[in-house]
Design goal:
The chain is of the alpha+beta class. Helix content is about 40%, strand content about 15%. The chain has seven helices and four strands; from the N terminus they run βαββαβααααα. The radius of gyration is 16 Å and the shape is globular.
Length: about 200
């Protein structure tokens, strides 16, 4: 996974054989805390969404970005989370697919809106999967960090600047429901991560 300074990326992975990676609310909270502890110091997290069998991260590599530190942080997060889940649930073997994917959102000269599309796609994922009836009901995405202006994992200020997001709550909510053509959504990922329920 080669990321470069000055670019935005969609980073994602899913459970091996598309199996679940989160089994309880505590698992989501534990994984999110690992992102805060290990990833947040090395790269700006613009948005995220943790789903039952996969996760999405929308990242921006700023001037202080160091690829080796980022790769080490991702390895620690995934391996330590996998060990904890295996121990907790008496399972063995890999939890995640072998390679975490990264799609650059900033290098498509013909589609300047990919970072914005990715941002909305991540937040709409639980709604489209039928996990919730409203965007704000899924507590394991960054939607509420922006909607309630309550940053936890994300650099909300940078996200608002990079994506030119509205600051008025009603305008942000309306924008968050904007629909995009499936071909544009697929451009945000090398492999479209479709939830399997």
């Amino acid at each position: 996974m080669d990321l470069e300074t000055g670019y935005q990326y969609h980073v994602y992975n899913r459970g091996i054989n598309r199996a679940s990676i989160f089994f309880s609310n505590k698992n989501y909270v534990y994984f999110r805390q690992k992102l805060i502890d290990y990833l947040k110091p090395h790269i700006s997290i613009i948005s995220n969404c943790l789903m039952p069998n996969h996760f999405h991260l929308h990242l921006a590599a700023g001037d202080n970005f160091n690829l080796l530190q980022f790769q080490k942080a991702m390895k620690i997060i995934l391996s330590s989370y996998s060990r904890a889940v295996n121990l907790k649930y008496g399972r063995v073997g890999s939890l995640f697919q072998q390679h975490t994917k990264a799609k650059c959102l900033s290098d498509d000269k013909h589609q300047k809106d990919l970072p914005f599309i990715c941002f909305n796609y991540l937040h709409q994922n639980p709604l489209k999967a039928g996990l919730v009836g409203k965007l704000e009901d899924w507590e394991f995405s960054s939607f509420n960090e922006y909607f309630n202006n309550n940053p936890l994992l994300c650099d909300v200020s940078l996200g608002r600047d990079l994506l030119n997001l509205p600051t008025i709550t009603d305008d942000f909510y309306k924008m968050s429901l904007e629909q995009f053509d499936n071909d544009l959504i697929k451009k945000c990922s090398k492999i479209h991560v479709q939830p399997d329920w």
